[in-house]
Amino acid sequence: MATAGYLFNEKPPAGLLVAQAVGITASTYLFGGNMGISFISIPAVMLAPAPLAARQWRKVYDTGKSIGIPLSLISSAAVAYVAYHQDPSSLPFKLNIAAAILFPSIVPFTLAFLKPTNDKLFEKETSLAGTSLDDKAAEAGVTSGETTHALIDKWAMLNLARAAITGVGAIFAIWAALDKRETGGYNSVGLTSGANRMG
C-alpha cells in the first residue's frame, strides 16, 4: 500500500531504510565492479599473450557473472520494495521504479550485445588450450579484429556500457533517497496569526 510520505521529523520504518540501503549499496558495488573490470582487470589481461589472455578473461568473466546477476536482482527487488511504499505520484517513486527496471536490464543487454563476443572468446579459449601460454605467435594470420586481444578489448568497451546502465539506476536510487519533496505535505501545514492562532 502506497503511503503519502513521511514528514522531515518522522523516521521511516526500519524495513524501508534497510531496503533503501541494500538497493543503493548493491547497485553501486555492481557499478564499481564492472567499471573496475574494464579499467583495471582487462588492461592487465591485455598484457598477456593470447593463450594466457583467453584463460584470464574467462576467469574475469566467470567471477563477474557469479556476482553480477544476483546483485542486479537484489538491487531491483530492494528499490521496488521501497517504491511500493511510496506515493505513486511522487518523484522518488518514479525514480525507484526506473531503477528497478534498469538494474535487471543488464541481462538482456548482455544477451543482445555481449554474448556474440563472449562466444568468440570461449572458442578462443578452447582453440588455444593446447598452445604454450607464452606463445606470442599463437594467432599469426588471424584477422586483426578477430584476435583474442581485439575481442577482449571490444568486450571491455561493451562492459562499460553495461556498467553505465547500472550506474544510471544507482543514481536514480540515490536521488530517490535524497529527494524529500514528497514528504512535505504542505496542504496540511498552515500558519496562524492573531486571534485565530488560539483556535
Entry summary:
With 199 residues, the chain is mostly helical. The protein has helices at 14-45, 50-84, 91-102, 106-127, 148-178. Helix 1 (14-45) runs antiparallel to helix 2, helix 1 (14-45) packs antiparallel against helix 5 and helix 4 (106-127) runs antiparallel to helix 5 (148-178).
Q: What labels would you give this structure?
A:
DUF1772-domain-containing protein, Anthrone_oxy, 199 residues, mainly alpha, membrane, 66% helix, transmembrane
Strand content is under 5%
The helix-strand sequence is: HHHHH
Average pLDDT reading: 88
Question: Tally of extended strands?
Answer: 0
State the low-pLDDT regions, or none: 182-191
What does this molecule look like?
The chain has 199 residues and is mainly α. The chain has one domain (14-133, 145-179). The protein is 66% helix and 0% strand. The protein contains five helices and no strands. The protein has helices at 14-45, 50-84, 91-102, 106-127, 148-178. The longest helix has 35 residues, at 50-84. The radius of gyration is 24 Å and the shape is elongated.
